[in-house]
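Input record (one chain):
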Amino acid sequence: MGNWFKNIKMSDTPLPEHSVHEDIKEETGRLDRREFPINPPKGRTGTGYTHVKRDMTEDTAQKMEQKYKDLELMDYGSCGVVFREKNKDNIRIKFTPDSSEYISALELMKEQRYEGRVHGFVKIFCAKEHENGIYEIVTERVAKLEKKEAEIVDILYHSESLIYDGNNDVFMFKSFRRSYPELADTPLFKKVYRRYKEMILNIKDAGADSGDAWSENIGKMPDGEYVILDLGGLYG
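The corresponding structure, as predicted from the sequence alone:
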């Protein structure tokens, strides 16, 4: 179907380790359709990004080139490909074959009309279906978690059902102290626990499923609030 977006430049910011692949020729400074890796990067499963590469039509690609200027690759993996516009750091543009992300984005946009920003979720600016089952989702761009925050979030992720199922904080921290005695009483652990729990409760209160709320799928607002980034499966 021709080349991927013409003149897409690699981001100045290195991709996460799990997204780096030798088949992307970084020295060229451009990302050509043919340079996408054939197999998922190490640590990723699924074929979302290969579906985007294969199924996006030339017509859609040309329209996207006209709509977005000077795109840079941010990340790619099992659920699709994420870009930003070089001079617009406040948005991220995702192309995905996952219809559940599109459904969730539409649902959140409805909620945003009534409530403004929906706590616990990244803000959605645009959700559109293109030919061949490719979906375009534009969201606000928020900060990634710091390394130590991410490690704590992944501990909490495995206890998420306990956090939500009515167990009080005293009970939870007794459990964490047994498993992580040097970490559980630190100010950072307590802060991350509070923010993560608040996000989970907000997602559940909105009638959504928070089942994929691990560190790679969470961002941080300027005020420190955690928000879910990956919309897949939130609303079915």
